[in-house]
Amino acid sequence: MAFAFPKGFLWGTATAAHQVEGGNTASDLWLMEWMKDSIFTEPSADACDQYHRYDSDIALLKGLGFGLYRFSIEWARIEPEEGFFSKAALDHYRRVLASCHAQGVIPMVTFHHFTAPLWFSKDGGWEDKKSVDRFARYCEKAAAALGDLIPYACTINEANIPQMITTMRELSGRAPRPGGRRERALAEAARLCGGEPGRFAPYLSGDGNKATPNLIAAHRKGYGAIKAKMDAQVGVTLSLTDYQAVHGGEKTRDRVHHTINGKFLETLKGDDFIGVQTYSRALIGDGRVMPAPNDAELTQMRYEFYPEALEACIRFAAKESGCPAIVTENGIGTEDDTRRMEYTRRALNGVINCLKDGIDLRGYTHWSMLDNYEWLEGYRPKFGLIEVDRPTQARKPKPSAYWLGEIAKRNALE
Length: 414
Ligand code: BGC
Prior knowledge:
CATH superfamily: Glycosidases
Number of strands: 15
Radius of gyration: 20 Å
Low-confidence stretches: none
Strand order of the largest sheet: 2-3-4-5-6-8-11-12
Helix content: 40-55%
Largest sheet: 8 strands, parallel, barrel
Distance between the termini: 6 Å
Number of helices: 14
Shape: globular
Mean pLDDT: 97
Structural class: alpha/beta
Number of domains: 1
Strand content: 15-25%
CATH architecture: Alpha-Beta Barrel
Bound molecules: beta-D-glucopyranose
């Protein structure tokens, strides 16, 4: 039996600027990737050169059957020095947006996806209260320049992830050691850019407890700044894991939920949508995170292969936020494309269950369009529906790309 998705259901794929564009030289991570004893496996370098290949990439997506492309605009390119907004960079993103419209692909634009300008992270990043006004000013300028071409916008990608990293590290006894590798790398980065020791704080390596109140305020202020300049659907995306209590872990699970997600969700009422980003589950025991079951299949990211997590997270996010939901990321790092299809098929069954129960879910966006730069892990994990031969930058859709594109075209799943 085929299930017909609601008319207008959005089918997309996602990327982020730093992971696909290449040459993001004014960003905080560029410095950290290239320094001696880097904590990154390898530098992003030219990535997938999407900065120049966006037009053919968008055509490829459209040809496969996808109607939406979620990508990010890069703050470090748009405001490479504090207060200087590059017209050339904004014009570039106008061309990318125009290409989407010309080819009949709906753009969904993320304003901040992990990377920031070096000057921002050098001066405390999100741990400093000034981040709120700095982010809102950037949103205002970018929305003024690009807003007429943007129908969907996400303020911050996974605004809860600094908190998630901090809390899960504490719970699993892996809190960063003073003087450890991470702290040494941050100190060295501060030295290299002439910053004060202890103030260099990129998004994924900062202190979630300090950053979270600023991220919540920045989403609110950024949301207002974007809405004031454009007529778009705006939301924030959250990294949502299906936290399951085992061996008396209920209280700990509830605490984890509140610390990592609850603080955000309760501030989102009235937003146009919430972006759900889910990859797996985590088992929470009494006071600690438990390992995946012994017989569990692990993905390249060492997460449990557990596509059913998506359904649980959509239900949770829709209920707690009171907003319509869009799956803005879901996918798997694997060399085995048959496992990608199996994962996605089971995740889509969860999407169908939510729709059948009347949850206001408006779309499914697969992470990722391309095999791209997976942050600390470099290019090893393969999340793409499309393979990229980086020496030639040739693109080759995998069977999963044709399969999911066909579902998108038909707006139905057998
Ligand atoms: C991020 C992506 C990342 C993906 C896979 C998400 O948390 O938004 O940038 O590549 O997970 O790990």
